[in-house]
Write a structure and sequence with these properties.
The complex is a heterodimer of chains A (281) and B (314).
Chain A lengths: L2 H9 L3 H18 L1 H4 L31 H37 L1 H16 L2 H12 L3 H11 L1 H16 L2 H8 L4 H9 L4 H24 L11 H10 L5 H29 L8
Helix pairs in contact in A: 1-13, 2-4, 2-13, 4-5, 4-7, 4-8, 4-11, 4-13, 5-8, 6-7, 8-11, 9-10, 11-12, 11-13, 12-13
Chain B lengths: L1 H28 L4 H6 L5 H10 L6 H13 L5 E2 L4 E2 H36 L4 H15 L2 H15 L15 H35 L2 H8 L4 H21 L2 H15 L5 H10 L3 H29 L1 H4 L2
Antiparallel strand pairs in B: 1-2
Helix pairs in contact in B: 1-13, 5-6, 5-8, 5-11, 6-8, 7-8, 7-11, 8-10, 8-11, 9-10, 10-13, 11-12, 12-13
The chains are: A mainly alpha (281), B mainly alpha (314).
């Protein structure tokens, strides 16, 4: 059996992983084709039809400004995907640089980098993210960078641990003996052998990042209104919870579904990529 | 063991120094004049200069840092313009609710998470394993604020069983305090319980597959002894390192929960201070929260060294 065939067979061995992938693709489709999937303009305010109940016209009712809740949830998928994926890429790149350098060189370089990483970890992530938002301002790109920075520590530590396990292996020594520079050895021989855990952690982090984004938006530190974001919608809805519970509660269901799907898919990917687990369970 | 702990203590001090430098830099990284950012631009030039001088912003950076940190250690954290009180009194008043919420939910997270993790691993493949594992997956994916809103909707608005907001210290009015604590603590524990359940389960499964467990079984030990005496003890070692961060995560969650339930704790201080650019409260708040995490981590390291002879005897 070819390598890729074996990979896919392992990946979809559990049906739930295929379901998770389907959910992710479904939300991705909503994000990309939002104007087609949505039934209304997410920004159109109908002040005569505020807080309407779910109906054939408004599937999930309308919010306090008479905007269609279903359409806003569909558009909210855009923020979730953009922030979730790009923030994870940022933290993976920065975390890899730090972890690779710390693990490869060891000694005082390692100490300095790891102390900074641990200092970042000592601050609750949401407080760190809030502080960074205050510094950099509120916009979609900045929010992405901020969430990316606040999860750098996890990636740096994982990468460092990974590098430590391969650093002293023979092929790394061989590369050095051949006269390759540290940079070449690191990039060509150490890094590729740390990639598979990196991909696993990245997939598993997307869900957490989407959660963090919704938390920041809930606190009013996410993307600026009127852009639809799931966390901000729950925050808006909470004020009117008694009058219109669907408005406050439905965006959260979208968060749970997407985050759950990413987490399950990440676990499936881990089982498929980690040779120790392949065929084992 | 002594050397290990001494080394960790030294590292913790370094980490705290780095955090204090980061917190201190906050005020200088933010674009614009910090005094105007904090008090608004419609103050008089004289007042601006007076505040600017009182904050020591006209001194060289290094001197400013040492002035701030030596004042901080002496408890002179300055006056918060947003909260209109001394930062130390502010923290003294606002920290207890957050700590009570944080510590209670951290205990729930660890105890229930470990318990569920062990149950699911031992009963692997049985209905109880499937149910708890599915619940743990959902728990991790649930936004804490959404859960809070859902609970308020069910228990405050519909059933009218629990108050939807407020916080009372347990020693002031115990019954009222408990009623107000239930929902916030549930919200703050669910994520922790879920992730400990998952981590304990996979750590346990790894240990159960080891040779020494087979040896223990084959020498005829009772299954309960094998699990509690041999498996759990070893499975908990990797989990221990995570425990240090539990209180940190709870306190982070507190920032959101305090907002939903209208609790005046440290989390809402941070959110408000950031919103109103109250750098004086912010700097001290960050250092305080980090200090709590560092102390937890240090305690965990002591427990770790105690639990793992490889470290103790190193």
């Amino acid at each position: 059996m070819s390598e890729s065939k074996r990979f896919f067979k392992a990946l979809f061995k559990r049906k739930i992983v295929a379901v998770a992938l389907f959910v992710i693709l479904f939300f991705l489709f909503c994000a990309i084709a939002a104007p087609l999937v949505a039934t209304h303009d997410p920004y159109y305010q109908d002040l005569y039809a505020t807080f309407s109940n779910p109906s054939a016209e408004h599937w999930l009712g309308t919010d306090h400004l008479g905007r269609d809740v279903y359409s806003r949830i569909v558009y909210g998928a855009r923020v979730a995907f953009l922030v979730g994926i790009f923030a994870v890429i940022i933290s993976a790149v920065l975390g890899t640089l730090l972890g690779l350098t710390a693990g490869y060189f060891g000694g005082w370089v390692d100490s300095v980098i790891m102390r900074i990483v641990e200092a970042m970890m000592a601050i609750p992530p949401i407080v760190l993210a809030l502080a960074l938002v205050t510094i950099f301002g509120r916009s979609l790109p900045m929010l992405t960078v901020v969430l990316g920075i606040s999860s750098v520590p996890a990636f740096a530590r994982m990468m460092r641990g990974q590098v430590l396990t391969v650093r002293d292996l023979d092929y790394v020594a061989a590369s050095r003996i051949r006269g390759n520079s540290d940079l070449v050895t690191m990039v060509k021989h150490v890094l590729p052998n740390c990639l598979s855990p990196m991909i696993i952690v990245m997939t598993q982090s997307i869900g957490g990042t989407i959660l963090a984004e919704s938390g920041l938006s809930f606190l009013g530190a996410g993307v600026l209104p009127p852009t639809a974001s799931w966390g901000a919608m729950v925050n808006d809805g909470y004020t009117w919870l008694e009058r219109c519970p669907v408005f406050a509660l439905s965006p959260g269901v979208a968060v749970i579904l997407l985050v759950l799907a990413f987490n399950i898919f990440g676990d499936g990917l881990r089982d498929a990529l980690d040779p120790r687990l392949r065929g084992g369970r | 063991m002594g050397r290990f702990l001494l080394k960790r203590l030294f590292q913790t001090i370094i980490i705290l120094i780095i955090i204090s430098i980061l917190a201190f830099s906050l005020i200088h990284i933010i674009p614009g004049d910090p005094v105007y950012a904090m008090l608004g631009t419609d103050i008089t030039k004289e007042y601006h200069d007076q505040v600017y001088h009182s904050m020591g912003l006209d001194l060289p950076l290094v001197q400013q840092y040492f002035r701030w940190i030596s004042n901080f250690v002496q408890g002179k954290m300055g006056y918060s313009y947003h909260f209109k009180e001394d930062v130390l009194t502010l923290v003294q008043r606002r920290l207890p609710p957050t700590l009570i919420l944080g510590i209670t939910s951290a205990i729930f997270s660890v105890v229930l998470g470990l318990l569920f993790g062990i149950i699911t691993a031992v009963r692997r493949g049985k209905p109880i394993d499937s149910i708890l594992t599915v619940l743990a997956n959902i728990g991790i994916a649930t936004p804490i604020f959404w859960l809070a809103v859902l609970l308020v909707f069910i228990f405050s608005i519909n059933l009218k069983w629990l108050p939807s907001w407020g916080f009372t210290l347990p020693w002031v009015d115990f019954a009222k305090s408990m009623k107000q604590l239930i929902m916030p603590v549930i919200c703050m524990s669910v994520g922790g319980i879920a992730s400990y359940t998952r981590q304990t389960r996979s750590s346990m499964l790894e240990v159960i597959g080891q040779d020494y467990i087979r040896t223990a079984r084959s020498k005829g030990l009772k299954e309960s002894k094998v699990i509690m005496g041999h498996a759990v003890k070893n499975a908990l070692i990797p989990i221990l390192t995570l425990i240090g961060l539990t209180l940190r995560n709870s306190i982070g969650g507190s920032a959101i929960i305090e907002r939903v339930f209208n609790i005046s704790g440290m989390g809402s201080v941070m959110v408000e201070a950031l919103g109103s650019r109250d750098y004086i409260a912010l700097q001290s708040g960050i250092v305080f929260l980090a200090l709590i995490t560092c102390i937890c981590n240090l305690l965990v390291d002591i427990a770790y060294a105690y639990a793992d002879p490889r470290i103790r005897l190193d």
